[in-house]
Amino acid sequence: MFKNLFSSPETTLGGIVVFLGLVFTQVGYLFDIDPLTNPDWGIIAAAVGALFTGIKARDNGVNSKKAGAE
């Protein structure tokens, strides 16, 4: 799965940035001093989806051979 992780660096980095931004926000709710705030598990699931989409997507100008799709 991670064989060609950085063959399309723009989309991979985009997926990682979106994932980290969403997950860090939600994890912050676990560690704040307000017991009434809880993480939104739907947002965490969407973050995981964005991460995998970013990893699997292909940048413009990256052919199938370079991406490992052939």
Q: What is the radius of gyration?
A: 16 Å
The overall average pLDDT, rounded, is: 83
CA-based shape: rod-shaped
Q: How many structural domains does the protein architecture include? A: 1
Category by helix and strand content: mainly alpha
Total DSSP helices: 3
Description:
The protein is 61% helix and 0% strand. The protein has helices at residues 9-31, 41-56, 64-67. Helix 1 (9-31) packs antiparallel against helix 2. The two termini are 14 Å apart.
Blueprint of the fold:
Blueprint: H1 9-31, H2 41-56, H3 64-67
Helix pairs in contact: 1-2
Structure described in brief:
The chain has 70 residues and is mostly helical. The protein has helices at residues 9-31, 41-56, 64-67.
Features:
70 residues; 61% helix; 3 helices; single chain; mainly alpha
